[in-house]
């Protein structure tokens, strides 16, 4: 049974939480959204991860006073509680669950982009300092490699996109350089391939013009190479690895318009192919793989400047999207995590 929990901040003071429930509550129909309570602290630009014990950790973000160090936990019983606060306030940070269950939180914005990083220990509800990144960055992607290390890619620093990659080693707690991409990227997406490589797609090099270029990082050789170009430049889209190892890149913006198109990346053929069209063009949305059926839930986002409440399911074997239940509130750039719980 898979549930998707989403959080969003309205007017910096009211937190709206919704969940797509699949048979977890007898009175709630499949494919519908219900309120799931308020977080202890309002926040936007936060980071959400699913812990190994089933809880969700929501860290950082910004409140009415700017970036915050606070963190919250959402339990498997559906209740919220305050977690220990981070050592430093930050928003738009990168987060990843390490193989031992701890959580890496790296970079983000304080008064400007930061290179600091912290580790959350769920068993102790405590934070400790990790090493510092070589480059300050916010809005980077964080991809957990098969050997347990974490690849940090791109982002922006002091208003400019970043082209560097870094590797975090949980054993040493330190970061090291991992090469440079063919172009600086912010508002990009990344996905770990079944063979362990990382596909980095699209984004923008200047905050305005979308890219159709891609890069592939190979952890076996430590090399970065140019990947095949997408058919459409896109930033603020999503990239999701499916159970068969292909990656579906959905929506985004081509610098002028929000996109309805989607593309498949086939690692074996090393190319992109058309993967159908959304019912509603959108960027700044979220996408979640539903592992029980390999479908992808696409939620919210923005279309023509308007936040969306709608959600769609992508069905890979049909190369088609179908509408599913809409959220009660329109939202874009919301944070969320897919969690699996026992029946």
Briefly, what is this?
The chain has 343 residues and is mainly beta. It contains no helices and 33 strands. Helix content is 0%, strand content 45%.
Mean pLDDT: 90
Helix content class? under 10%
Poorly predicted ranges: 5-27
Biggest sheet character? 5 strands, antiparallel
Per DSSP, the total helix count is: 0
Distance between the termini: 6 Å
| CATH superfamily label of the domain at 42-180 | Kelch-type beta propeller
Binned strand content: over 45%
CATH level-two architecture of the domain at 42-180: 6 Propeller
Determine Rg (CA atoms, Å): 19 Å
What is the total tally of β strands?
Answer: 33
Task: Write down the overall geometry.
Answer: globular
Could you please say which CATH topology of the domain at 42-180 applies here?
Answer: Neuraminidase
CATH domain class name of the domain at 42-180? Mainly Beta
């Amino acid at each position: 049974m898979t549930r998707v929990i989403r959080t969003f901040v309205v007017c910096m003071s009211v937190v709206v939480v919704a969940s797509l429930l699949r048979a977890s509550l007898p009175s709630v129909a499949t494919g519908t959204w219900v309120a799931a309570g308020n977080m202890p602290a309002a926040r936007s630009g936060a980071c959400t991860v699913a812990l190994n014990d089933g809880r969700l950790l929501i860290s950082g973000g910004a409140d009415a006073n700017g970036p915050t160090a606070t963190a919250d936990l959402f339990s498997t019983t559906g209740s919220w509680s305050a977690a220990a606060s981070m050592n430093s306030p930050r928003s738009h940070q990168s987060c990843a669950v390490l193989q031992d269950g701890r959580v890496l939180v790296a970079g983000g914005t304080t008064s400007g982009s930061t290179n600091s990083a912290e580790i959350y220990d769920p068993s102790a509800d405590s934070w400790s300092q990790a090493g510092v990144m070589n480059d300050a960055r916010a809005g980077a992607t964080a991809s957990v490699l098969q050997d347990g290390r974490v690849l940090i890619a791109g982002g922006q620093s002091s208003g400019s996109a970043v082209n560097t990659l870094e590797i975090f080693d949980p054993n040493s707690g330190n970061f090291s350089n991992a090469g440079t991409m063919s172009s600086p990227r912010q508002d990009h997406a990344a996905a770990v391939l079944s063979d362990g490589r990382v596909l980095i797609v699209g984004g923008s090099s200047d905050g305005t013009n979308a890219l159709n270029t891609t890069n592939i990082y190979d952890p076996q050789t430590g090399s970065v190479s140019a990947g095949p170009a997408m058919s459409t430049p896109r930033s603020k889209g999503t990239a999701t690895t499916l159970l068969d190892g292909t990656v579906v890149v959905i929506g985004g913006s081509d610098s002028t318009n929000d996109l309805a198109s989607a593309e498949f990346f086939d690692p074996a053929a090393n190319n992109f192919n058309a993967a159908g069209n959304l019912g509603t063009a959108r960027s700044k949305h979220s996408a979640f793989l539903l592992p029980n059926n390999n479908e992808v839930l696409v939620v919210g986002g923005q279309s023509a400047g308007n936040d969306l409440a709608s959600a769609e399911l992508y069905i890979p074997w049909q190369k088609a999207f179908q509408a599913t239940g809409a959220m009660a509130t329109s939202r874009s750039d919301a944070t969320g995590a897919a969690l699996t719980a026992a029946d």
